[in-house]
UniProtKB/TrEMBL annotation:
<keyword id="KW-0812">Transmembrane</keyword>
<protein>
    <recommendedName>
        <fullName>Glycosyltransferase RgtA/B/C/D-like domain-containing protein</fullName>
    </recommendedName>
</protein>
<feature type="transmembrane region" description="Helical">
    <location>
        <begin position="327"/>
        <end position="344"/>
    </location>
</feature>
<feature type="transmembrane region" description="Helical">
    <location>
        <begin position="304"/>
        <end position="322"/>
    </location>
</feature>
<keyword id="KW-1133">Transmembrane helix</keyword>
<feature type="transmembrane region" description="Helical">
    <location>
        <begin position="156"/>
        <end position="178"/>
    </location>
</feature>
<feature type="transmembrane region" description="Helical">
    <location>
        <begin position="184"/>
        <end position="202"/>
    </location>
</feature>
<keyword id="KW-0472">Membrane</keyword>
<feature type="transmembrane region" description="Helical">
    <location>
        <begin position="110"/>
        <end position="127"/>
    </location>
</feature>
<feature type="transmembrane region" description="Helical">
    <location>
        <begin position="280"/>
        <end position="298"/>
    </location>
</feature>
<feature type="transmembrane region" description="Helical">
    <location>
        <begin position="350"/>
        <end position="372"/>
    </location>
</feature>
<feature type="transmembrane region" description="Helical">
    <location>
        <begin position="83"/>
        <end position="101"/>
    </location>
</feature>
<feature type="transmembrane region" description="Helical">
    <location>
        <begin position="253"/>
        <end position="271"/>
    </location>
</feature>
Amino acid sequence: MKWQEKIKNLTKNPWSHLIFLALLLALFYGQTSFNLMAGGWYQLFVEKIVDEGQIDFSLPGFHGADFITLPIYYFFRSSRSTAILDIAAAFLNIFLIYLAVKEIFKNKKFGIFAAYLYLLNPFTYANAFRGDHHTPMITFTLLGLYLLFKNSKLAFFAFGLSYISRPFAVALFPLFIYRNKIRQFILSLSIPLIYVIAEYWQTGKIMIGEHPDFTPANLFSLKRFALNLIYAFQNYFSVHNYSFLNSVAPGDMIHLSPFISFLALIGILNYKKYFPDKKLFYSLLISAAIALFIPASFYHLDMWYLWVFNFLLILLALPVLVKFTKIIPLVALSFFFQFFYVYLTYRHIFWNGYGIFLIPGAILIVSLIYLASQFLANRQNNYNA
């Protein structure tokens, strides 16, 4: 019985789960090849600072995370420095999402479940080898949330770095109100303000991400806003690669399981049951609406711009998922579609085999073991009663 107790204690330790997930992520990256692709702009930005002493804002992209990349390139002179940062951020996100969600809900189990769901979304971290700083944006956002709910005065700095990596975490403004930290939000805006002023001073224009030809005039489209919302709604409740609006590439399918969408919808419709803290619920709901409406207002609704919305859907779904543990294996199984889509998107670039499917397979097995342990524990309790 001693070994059984040891295993039981091990499974109850959150860090055991996080280390297990980190090992799975290492397995994922261990069979992936480098290809900077669009991330080459970010690498060039870093190299120009170190090698030429020049900050060149004319290079496309949001370069906030590039300033964090500088020490990596300075000491190692690696042509893949931006990808190295992104991979390190992907690992760090496993631990940060646990810490952030645990603080938001004051519940360790919620944090563990969120960490598993993070790893079940391969699009979130698969492009780290591209070095385009999607994963550092997530890192800064999660760190900002953790600091915000820990009442740290440094939350604004983490959020500010997130904004100049990708600006979508600004949708979390209602959570600043919920925490009575409006001053922190205002301070967080000072960082992108300084960035934009410096960029405009040097180039005479404001660069919009990796698209130098974009301007506010052609970035936004009110005519497509409703169509984008319909398209998003159809995608969030399906797993297939079809849209009645147009042909959809695998990478442009929604980066989430429809099970999470349905669970979030249940949580929203029954919020009085699943959210004891009503102010937190409304803050999450309004943040989710903003996080969807901002990308939907663009001419092209890019699925990569919806990470904040996806994360908020997970937060809205977690109370329901934790309540109905019997469906956890089904939820895990549904994410095989995400790995299938990420495989179709990058198979000729990153992978030659099917090893990445070991990750959802391993998590599915863990979910079945968890469900079996719950069943045996309940049966033992009924027997003792």
